[in-house]
Specification:
13 strands, alpha/beta, five-stranded mixed sheet, four-stranded mixed sheet, 10 helices, globular, 325 residues
Length: 325
């Protein structure tokens, strides 16, 4: 059976120049390099300049993804930005990225599912591309999480960083089998009863402020390992594959303990798990494309490989996606 799949044809990422090490943080909050590494696996994070909004990070990642795909901004007809740290309350950061790229009039909007945002955005793009409503989509995860930090709270401020990553998604013919290039299956979830486990204590209609990130870390960890494993299994069933079929597991880069916990629960070979959290910390919706870009360009992930993505974030939201590169 001939079908159209949404295929990832280009990947790019961008990290701000400023690096904040664990030792740097130890000078402003009661923590240490040893304490952070032991509990999170994080060694450093990147921080955007004061004059460098989220759209700047997103635009640079998008340019690199387009170059990787052999496309130009003039080809783009859909831009989706997954972010919880937009430039402005409105318009959408995607519209600002469109202007900065010089892309033509097209569809442009943001998706807000916090750390799960990139997986959610990818599923939305699939709905446009696989059904013929877009021919060249940019799916971008871009965050400046350092803007949301309470720098007196050592349990949260050590965990997050700024960055952006992007996929170019285009239609490709398939035969309706798991050998097709492109997206094969999704599983997306949300449980609003767990809002108080991970949230920001500000907003336009509540406090009129940006607010700070608040998290019940131990409870988030427990939910993450169980919920993510379930979503991964469901996404594999949707794709018609099993977990052992997967060549590479690219998880949300939140915490090395969570990455290991999910891998162990599913029996994944740790040599097939991509971890970059040590170098950029938790960049929320940007973390999956950042890790993917690293693993493609260092030669680990190759064309034809079967890849599994997963994430969990505030909401609580979580989800997984299986695709063949």
């Amino acid at each position: 059976m001939s079908i159209v799949r949404s295929a990832v044809t280009g990947v790019g990422s961008y990290l701000p120049e400023q690096i904040v090490t664990n030792d740097d943080l130890s000078r402003i909050v009661d923590t240490s390099d040893e304490w952070i590494i032991e509990r999170t696996g994080i060694r450093q994070r990147h921080k955007a300049r004061d004059d460098q909004p989220t759209s700047d990070l997103a635009t640079e990642a998008a340019r690199r993804a387009l170059a990787d795909a052999g496309r130009s901004p003039s080809d783009v007809d859909l831009i989706i930005v997954a972010t919880t740290t937009p430039d402005l309350t409105f318009p959408a950061t995607a519209s600002i990225v469109q202007r900065k790229l010089g892309a033509p009039t097209c569809i442009a909007f943001d998706v807000q599912a916090v750390c799960s945002g990139f997986v959610y955005a990818l599923s939305v793009a699939d709905g446009f591309v696989a059904r013929g409503h877009a021919k060249c989509a940019l799916v971008i995860g871009a965050e400046e999480m350092t803007r949301l930090m309470d720098w007196t709270d050592r349990t949260t401020c050590v965990l997050f960083g700024d960055g952006a990553g992007a996929f170019v998604v285009e239609p490709r013919p398939g035969q309706g089998t798991t050998a097709d290039q492109g997206i094969l299956g999704f599983a997306l979830r949300s449980d609003g009863t767990k809002t108080d486990l991970l949230y920001v204590d500000g907003g336009p209609s509540s406090t009129g402020t940006v607010g700070h990130l608040r998290m019940a870390g131990n409870q988030v960890f427990r939910h993450a390992v169980v919920n993510i494993a379930e979503a991964i299994t469901a996404a594999c069933e949707s794709a018609g594959i099993t977990v052992p079929d997967v060549d590479w597991f690219v998880p949300h880069q939140a915490n090395q303990r969570i990455i290991k916990g999910v891998g162990d629960r599913l029996g994944l070979d740790e040599n097939r798990v991509i971890s970059t959290v040590s170098m950029h910390a938790n960049t929320s919706a940007a973390s999956i494309p950042l890790a993917m870009d690293t693993a493609i360009h260092d030669g680990r992930i190759k064309r034809g490989d079967l890849v599994l993505l997963e994430a969990m974030g505030g909401g609580l939201t979580w989800g997984a996606c299986a695709f063949r590169l």
